[in-house]
DNA sequence: AACAAGTACCTTGCACGGCAAGGTACCATG
DNA sequence: CATGGTACCTTGCCGTGCAAGGTACTTGTT
């Protein structure tokens, strides 16, 4: 029950984090998943539906590239609309985080 | 689609916030909902299932009290287990928030 | 040649929890 | 007696992360 907090916390934030990662350079899902797994414990099964959604929403575009080790990688690249989404999501995040901090108050 | 971010963000955090509010004094659902609605846009329909869950989990206990205006209020009071849950959730939150901040990096 | 292990892609079914909308009932004011 | 505020609660829906499973290519080991 307690560990479900972390699961729930991720919801909504993961997309923003992926956008932020991509803003620093194109990347492919498997690598994104690895980084996110380390940072916030994201599972691999999460990334592919997420990337698909983001592509459908026009936030990213894709291209294939050979890798030398394993199957070809599908790279994701931020679109302008994706960059805008990142900006607005970051500001929403900050508002939210500030509100939470205020509620927690001295409980920290 | 963008507004779903805020919805998703709330998941998991609301329980912690309610615990934090209760740590400052007993309160009843309707008032908690009003405060949370102002702070993070929580809907009223969210609070009752949440309080029920928290009671089932032994995080809060309840008692009734007349109100003079409307039906009697059902006050919620933090249990020891609830106070412990608050502490651990807050530290999880801080870890999480730090991780997110790190990923966002200079995107802020 | 055969096999495991690593990389990299993807899908299916499930569980959780917030929300909108709706409903009940009590009290005061007009 | 009707309106509006307080305060309780339920139902059904939807989004999304997860675990588990599956494919296929490459490299290293036996």
Q: Would you mind describing this structure in some detail?
A:
2 copies of one chain form a homodimer. Chain A has 108 residues and is of the alpha+beta class. Chain A has a single domain, classed as Orthogonal Bundle (Arc Repressor Mutant, subunit A). Chain A is built from 5 helices and 3 strands, in the order H-H-E-H-H-E-E-H. In chain A, strands 1-3-2 form a 3-stranded antiparallel sheet. In chain A, strand 2 and strand 3 form a beta hairpin. In chain A, helix 2 packs across helix 5 and helix 3 packs across helix 4. The longest helix of chain A is centred in the C-terminal third of the chain and has 25 residues. The mean pLDDT of chain A is 87. Chains A and B meet through helix 1, helix 2 and helix 5 of A and helix 1, helix 2 and helix 5 of B. Chain A binds a DNA duplex (30 and 30 nucleotides) through helix 1, helix 3 and helix 4.
Keywords:
homodimer, 108 residues, alpha+beta, Arc Repressor Mutant, subunit A, 3-stranded antiparallel sheet, 3 strands, 13% strand, globular, DNA-binding
> How many β-strand runs of chain A?
3
Summarize the biggest pleated sheet of chain A.
3 strands, antiparallel
CATH class of chain A: Mainly Alpha
Fold-level CATH name of chain A:
Arc Repressor Mutant, subunit A
What is the fold's blueprint, element by element?
Two copies of one chain form a homodimer.
Chain A: H1 4-10, H2 13-22, E1 27-28, H3 29-40, H4 44-56, E2 60-65, E3 73-78, H5 80-104
Antiparallel strand pairs in A: 1-3, 2-3
Helix pairs in contact in A: 2-5, 3-4
Chain A binds a DNA duplex (30 and 30 nucleotides) through residues 4, 7-8, 10-12, 14, 28-31, 42-46, 48-50, 52-53, 67-74.
């Amino acid at each position: 029950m307690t560990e479900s907090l972390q699961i729930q916390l991720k919801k909504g934030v993961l997309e923003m984090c992926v956008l932020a990662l991509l803003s620093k350079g194109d990347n492919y899902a498997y690598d994104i998943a690895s980084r996110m797994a380390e940072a916030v414990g994201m599972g691999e099964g999460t990334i592919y539906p997420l990337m698909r959604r983001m592509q459908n929403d026009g936030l990213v575009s894709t291209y294939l590239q050979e890798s030398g080790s394993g199957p070809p990688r599908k790279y994701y690249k931020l679109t302008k609309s994706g960059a805008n989404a990142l900006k607005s999501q970051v500001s929403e995040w900050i508002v939210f985080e500030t509100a939470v901090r205020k509620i927690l108050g001295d409980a920290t």
